[in-house]
Amino acid sequence: MQQNVKLYILVTALLFGLSPLAIDMYLPALPSMASSLKVSINDMEMSVAVFLLAFALAQPVFGLLADRFNKLNLLLSGLVIFTLSSLALPMVETAEGLYLTRMFQAIGGASSVVCFAMIQQKFDIQKGSQIITYVMATVVIAPLVAPMIGGQILKHGSWEEIFYVLAGVGVFAFVLSLFTHSEKLETVNSKAPNSKASNGKFLNKRVGNDQTEQIASSSLTDFIAIFKQPLPIAFIFLGGFGFAALFSFVAGSAFVYIDFFKVSAENYSYLLGLNALAMISGSLLSAKVFAKVPPNKKAIIAGLFLGPLSFLFFVLAQMQAPLTAIVISVFMFNILLGMISANAISAAMSFYPTQGGAISGVFGLCQFALGAVFSAGISLSHAHSPAVLLSFMGLACASAAMCSTYLYTRSCSQDSELSTHSNASQPCGSL
């Protein structure tokens, strides 16, 4: 059974890694593709924005469908679309054709969001949180390692081979999914919202105060209603702003490290690997060392630490910050992000035990929409120093810390209400 769970985690991580790989693996090939298609580099960079936009919008659609239709069929359909569009990309001859195929590639990759609903049905909140921790590590690490993989493929082959490799990975994921995700999903997390199996006192308790009724299937009305619930949406934006800081780094780090600090391309790849190691460390801390701590607590506490870190980013932006200081501060951020990403989505999903698809779709939309906005902001700023990169990362971290502060104060307020009703003393901030 343990081996089956490990394989399930590995395959799910592969499914979630497809789209980040598709986003960033072809970045080193943009100049070659521009020359081959006879378009400007700006036209090529626009294909990244097209992918991000299509991916962000497709996730909530798949999320809503996951609460109504067979999840495995949705997942497999998305993998077919991803694979076929990846095979079609080397055949395009115009920028318009590139945009269209990239759009379909993004739509196919977005089907991975249904795995959140699968995990919610198959495992209880604590085990599900651990699994999501490992899976989300893939999502945050892939944008860092994907350019290195693409660079190696380009070094020994052509840009077309990057998309053939992506298609091959899509086929591999399809076959593995048939074996690992096809078993009948039994609902094991269907206890009442205030049961201890959920997320502890703060999360389960007061769902009724914010949401008086939950239904088994999602609709567009349910999707919109999620944005009206302050607590789950705060967790969603906590994870979303953390992802925005990551995408800010991905968008601006090549210029800062290579052009400004004159770091070699090889050493730049090592620095990216160092950040990937930091996120793995954060994920392992969450899943192993703090395994018994409820996801909401881990997300809130890690998010609060982003507050002083955002101040550090702003200070470094205003001074001639050395490369070492930037590398260390980004390393600390990636550790915290490794703890936040999975726990934030687990905490948000605990409010909707029967609507995992809808809530995970909203989470994905928030993540990639904010990531696209922040990365586009860096691209349009025409930065000539590390100040812009550090400022955008500081802004994203400060926004995430504000979400954590709100969640922390709400927990204090609600703990006080419980203490008043029970005539017992409950320290504020115990979450």
From TrEMBL:
Looking at the record's lineage, which domain of life comes first?
Answer: Bacteria
Q: Which UniProt keywords apply?
A: Cell inner membrane, Cell membrane, Membrane, Transmembrane, Transmembrane helix, Transport
As for membrane topology, the entry says: Multi-pass membrane protein
Q: Where are the transmembrane segments?
A: 46-65, 72-92, 98-119, 131-150, 162-181, 233-258, 270-287, 299-317, 323-345, 357-381, 387-408
What Pfam families has UniProt attached to this entry? MFS_1
Q: Which GO terms describe its molecular function?
A: sodium:proton antiporter activity; xenobiotic transmembrane transporter activity
Keyword flag Transport: yes
**Where found, per UniProt?**
Cell inner membrane; Cell membrane
Q: What family is it from?
A: Belongs to the major facilitator superfamily. Bcr/CmlA family.
- The species is Shewanella violacea (strain JCM 10179 / CIP 106290 / LMG 19151 / DSS12)
Which SUPFAM superfamilies has this protein been placed in? MFS general substrate transporter
GO CC annotations, alphabetized: plasma membrane
Q: What is this protein called?
A: Bcr/CflA family efflux transporter
GO BP annotation list: xenobiotic detoxification by transmembrane export across the plasma membrane
Q: Which CDD domains match?
A: MFS_MdfA_MDR_like (cd17320)
According to the entry, every stretch annotated as the Major facilitator superfamily (MFS) profile domain falls at: 5-412
